[in-house]
Specification:
Blueprint lengths: L6 H7 L3 H32 L8 H34 L12 H5 L4 H58 L5 H35 L1
Helix pairs in contact: 2-3
Length: 210
């Protein structure tokens, strides 16, 4: 059997020419085997009607198998020539013939180099699309995080508004002034605490020396 895949012919016929030839070959083999069985049956019937015949059915079977092998060998040789003729002259499409669905290639021909460049361009576009999809997904995730942060900030602002409202009701003043006062007081306390710690260290050192 031919090893050429004949893909263009398969596109036109709907099957590969090699598959067609293989089916013809197998069909003939099956037909030849069936014919040999019929011939063997006829021979055995004829022998039964011949008195004194010393030919046994096993001998007839042996002769039938030998003749079948001979016929198969002859057929294989003839089939090889028939296959070559059919594949070249009947089941092949000439190189100058284009199928209707491939007419577009005649209008827009591409060289192998141009086709390779087009493939590379498609590959780059695919990579770009994947990168943009990944960037879009990252932006969506960032927007979700910003929504969460915004909600937390709104809670904090609301808390400050409520806090400032309480300060006003108590006559304490504005929240900014109160926080500024608390900050200054905290810094003064830190300075005083540091001075106390320093004096305490000096007293401890004096006690050790005494």
């Amino acid at each position: 059997m031919s090893a050429d895949p004949m893909a263009y012919e398969a596109q036109f016929f709907g099957f590969t020419p090699q598959t067609c030839m293989l089916r013809i070959y197998l069909a003939f083999q099956d037909y030849l085997f069936e014919v040999m069985q019929v011939v063997e049956g006829v021979i055995l019937k004829k022998l039964d009607k011949m008195p004194g015949c010393k030919v046994s059915p096993s001998q007839v079977r042996k002769c039938t198998e030998q003749f079948l092998l001979f016929m198969r060998d002859r057929f294989d040789k003839l089939f090889g020539k028939m296959e070559e003729v059919l594949l070249q002259l009947v089941l092949s499409i000439p190189e100058n013939v284009l199928l209707p669905e491939d007419k577009v290639h005649e209008q827009f021909p591409y060289s192998p180099e141009q086709f390779q460049a087009l493939q590379e361009e498609i590959r780059q576009l695919q990579l770009q699309c994947r990168a943009e999809a990944a960037a879009e997904q990252a932006l969506r995730a960032e927007l979700e995080e910003q929504k969460v942060v915004k909600a937390e900030l709104e809670k904090i602002l609301q808390w400050f508004d409520d806090f400032e409202k309480i300060f006003r009701e108590q006559g304490i003043g504005s929240l900014r002034e109160s926080l500024a006062f608390l900050t200054q007081s905290s810094k003064k306390l830190q300075v005083v605490l540091k001075e106390v710690e320093q004096k305490s260290e000096k007293l401890k050192l004096r006690d050790k020396l005494m």
